[in-house]
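User: Continuing from earlier, I have the next pair ready.

Assistant: Great, send them over.

User: Here they are, in order.

Assistant: Folding the first of the pair now:
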Amino acid sequence: MTITRYETSPIYSKVTEANGFVFTAGVIPADLSKDVEGQTAEVLAEIDRLLALAGTTKSKIVQATVWLSDIRSREGMNKAWSAWLGGEGAPARACVEAKVIDPRMLVEISVVAVK
């Protein structure tokens, strides 16, 4: 089995590919001044970029995990999420409230896709 890692650091890789699966690390927004919808849109654009590194796309996502700093903001996150999916098949998804690294960070998302 070959494992390919993209954009690695000493502690993690942003994307790992193994056995036809592509895994992203948790993706966080860069602009923490945006609301949850804006942060989510930014995170999803970054997920598009990361999946492209490994030769796949959002249409091949099979599972997603969403962490929200406040579960009550789910509606704003879902608005950006639905716009991003654009009517393509939705993956299996978990969405939970969690403490995050910075209180201004409202959302973090990781995905698993196939090639």
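And the other member of the pair:
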Amino acid sequence: MINIVFFAALREQLDCASLTLESNDLATVADIIKQLSARSEQWQQTLNNASLLSAVNHDMVDQSHPVKAGDEVAFFPPVTGG
């Protein structure tokens, strides 16, 4: 199983704080995004944002990063500041 966590606006947009996915057929963060995007149009619009940030086991990564059973994958909206 892979634990998925959503933060800030993503949590509100998806009405979901966390979930788990079977690790079968999930090799990368991009695979997770693809599987979650198939849930609904709302999930697709929210997760297919070029500015989406992701982390695996608390390390910021890009979408090509590998994942395995037991990993925690977190998604964050783009961070802005001034």
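Worth noting for the second one:
The helical segments are 8-14, 29-37, 41-47. The chain is about 30% helix and 25% strand.
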